[in-house]
Amino acid sequence: MPLKILVTSKRVEDPEALILVKADGSGIETQGLSYRINPFDEIAVEEALRLKEEHGGEVVVASIGAADCVSEIRVALAMGADRGIRVDHEGPLDPGMVAAILQKLVEGEQPDLVILGKQSVDDDQNQVGQILAQRMGWARATFASKEESLESTAEKTRQCGLRLAADGTSIRVVREVDGGLETLELSLPAVITTDLRLNIPRITSVPGIMKARKKPVREIQVEELGIELQPAVIVRKLHSPSKRGGGLRVKTVQELWDKVHGEAGVL
Amino acid sequence: MDFTLSDEQKMLVNAVRQFIKEELKPLEDEVESTGLLAPEKARAIFEHSRELGLYAMNMPEEYGGAGLSAIDTMLVEEQFGHTSDILIRRAFGNIYEALLVCEGAQKERWLLPTVRGDRTCSIAITEPGAGSDAMGITTRAVKDGDGWLLTGNKHFISDGEYSDFFLVTAVTDPESTPKAISLFLVDKDSPGFTLGRNQVMMGLTGTSCNELFFKNIRLTRENLLGEEGRGMRICLQTLGRVRLAQVGARAVGKATHVLDLMVEYVKERKQFGKPIGDFQLIQQMIADSVIEVNAARLLLHRAAWEIDQGRDARDWISMVKVHAAETLGRVTDRAVQVFGGMGYCKELPIERYYRDSRIYRIFDGSSEIHRTLVARGATKFGAALYDVRA
Question: Is A71 at the interface with chain B, CB within 8 A?
Answer without folding.
Answer: yes
